[in-house]
């Protein structure tokens, strides 16, 4: 190769490398590499500076009293400080409660994991493809292929106001894959599971969850919908670029960080189960979860290596930005601080 060509290619490579730096998400790099603070509260205070309106963290280390942390606002318009005891929309973390409820009904022989969607909902035959092949187990495990209603091209233009409208969006879409051939996270699965709980027990699905999970664990600050709570007890939620407060949108379960943390520990330690139930649950679902709806994002996990539950709530979302990635980075850093403090 001629020297001139080599020189040209070298310059071209350098220019391309420099140009690629424009696309590096520097905000994430900064959040990840800056020195780790000494305390969780310092980390929470720092996280707020990345464009989050409010943040709550609950930490339950075995052998220690639970610790609560907060920063930012509970209500931005009123400049109300974030309160670690506020109710928060936990979104898909609620799937853990639903999966436990299904487990208990299976254990008591009210449901069968191997029975089909067509059996439980004959009215959906012809409306959901492969209804006679999709089993209850596949729905719990997100292996049904039933499309996720939030993936409908018009869902975010006109979000559903109730479960009926949400299901209608799913019915308008083809299956994501043939049953049990792949994994595909779908909120529609759990919408149908909630309906199945209600159909099986003969009353509201959240009332059943309250009877078999919340009351036995002493959880008095976990609710099925906004209609059950005082609106002033709910943390406000915001979406980047909008002034609207999403607090008044009724989109599922609400709970305090402490209630979620107590449940997560009971789930992982097995105390939420009666004899024989945990084996069923372990075969169908997971032991931690995240949640995301407009205005609210959350992470709930148990860390076995340090016997610690860490719950993180953040009240600002941006589906097109880096808010979720930042949330995961801050969560990871908080866990590192907890581990470091134990050395």
Task: Output the keywords.
343 residues, alpha+beta, six-stranded antiparallel sheet, 12 helices, 11 strands, globular
Main β-sheet, spatial strand arrangement: 3-2-1-10-9-8
Q: Strand count, sense and closure of the main sheet?
A: 6 strands, antiparallel
Count of strand segments: 11
Order of helices and strands: HHHEEEEHHHHHHEEEHHEEEEH
How far apart the termini lie comes to 58 Å
Description of the molecule:
The protein contains twelve helices and eleven strands. The chain is α+β, with helices and mostly antiparallel strands and 343 residues long. It starts with a helix and ends with a helix. The protein has helices at residues 3-20, 26-33, 40-48, 94-107, 117-120, 136-140, 163-171, 187-201, 205-217, 257-269, 277-282, 323-341; strands at 54-61, 67-75, 80-81, 88-89, 222-223, 238-239, 254-255, 289-293, 296-303, 308-314, 316-317. Helix 3 (40-48) packs antiparallel against helix 12 (323-341). The model is unreliable at 12-22 (pLDDT under 50). A six-stranded antiparallel beta sheet has the order 3-2-1-10-9-8, sandwiched between helices. A three-stranded antiparallel beta sheet has the order 4-7-5. It has a two-stranded parallel sheet with strand order 6-11. A hairpin with a 4-residue loop joins strand 9 and strand 10 (308-314).
What is this structure's SSE topology?
Layout: H1 3-20, H2 26-33, H3 40-48, E1 54-61, E2 67-75, E3 80-81, E4 88-89, H4 94-107, H5 117-120, H6 136-140, H7 163-171, H8 187-201, H9 205-217, E5 222-223, E6 238-239, E7 254-255, H10 257-269, H11 277-282, E8 289-293, E9 296-303, E10 308-314, E11 316-317, H12 323-341
Parallel strand pairs: 6-11
Antiparallel strand pairs: 1-2, 1-10, 2-3, 4-7, 5-7, 8-9, 9-10
Helix pairs in contact: 2-12, 3-12, 4-8, 4-9
């Amino acid at each position: 190769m001629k020297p001139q060509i080599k020189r040209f290619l070298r310059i071209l490579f350098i220019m391309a490398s420099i140009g690629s730096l424009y696309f590096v998400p520097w905000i994430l790099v900064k959040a990840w590499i800056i020195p780790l603070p000494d305390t969780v509260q310092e980390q929470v205070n720092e996280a707020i500076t990345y464009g989050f309106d409010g943040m709550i963290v609950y930490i339950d280390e075995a052998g220690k009293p639970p610790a609560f942390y907060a920063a930012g606002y509970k209500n931005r318009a009123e400049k109300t400080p974030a309160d670690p005891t506020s109710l928060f929309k936990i979104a898909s973390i609620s799937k853990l409660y639903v999966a436990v409820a299904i487990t208990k009904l299976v254990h008591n022989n009210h449901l069968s994991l191997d029975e089909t969607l067509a059996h439980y909902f004959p009215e959906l035959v012809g409306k959901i493809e492969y209804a006679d092949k999709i089993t209850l187990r596949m729905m719990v495990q997100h292996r049904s292929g039933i499309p996720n209603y939030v993936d409908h091209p018009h869902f975010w233009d006109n979000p559903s106001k109730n479960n009926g409208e949400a299901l209608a969006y799913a019915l308008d879409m083809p299956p994501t894959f043939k049953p049990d051939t792949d994994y595909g996270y779908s909120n529609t699965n759990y919408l149908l599971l909630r309906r199945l709980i209600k159909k099986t027990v003969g009353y509201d699905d959240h009332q059943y969850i309250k009877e078999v999970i919340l009351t036995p664990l002493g959880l008095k600050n976990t609710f099925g919908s906004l209609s059950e709570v005082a609106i002033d007890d709910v943390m406000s939620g915001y979406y980047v670029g909008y002034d609207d407060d999403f607090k008044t949108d009724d989109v599922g379960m609400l709970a305090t960080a402490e209630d979620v943390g107590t449940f997560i520990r009971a789930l992982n330690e097995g105390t939420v189960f009666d004899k024989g139930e945990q084996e069923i649950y372990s075969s169908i679902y997971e032991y931690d979860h995240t949640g995301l709806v407009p205005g609210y994002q959350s992470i709930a996990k148990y860390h076995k290596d340090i016997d610690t539950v860490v719950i993180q709530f953040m009240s600002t979302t941006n589906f097109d930005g880096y808010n979720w990635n930042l949330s995961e980075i801050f969560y990871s850093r908080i866990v590192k601080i907890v581990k470091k403090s134990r050395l």
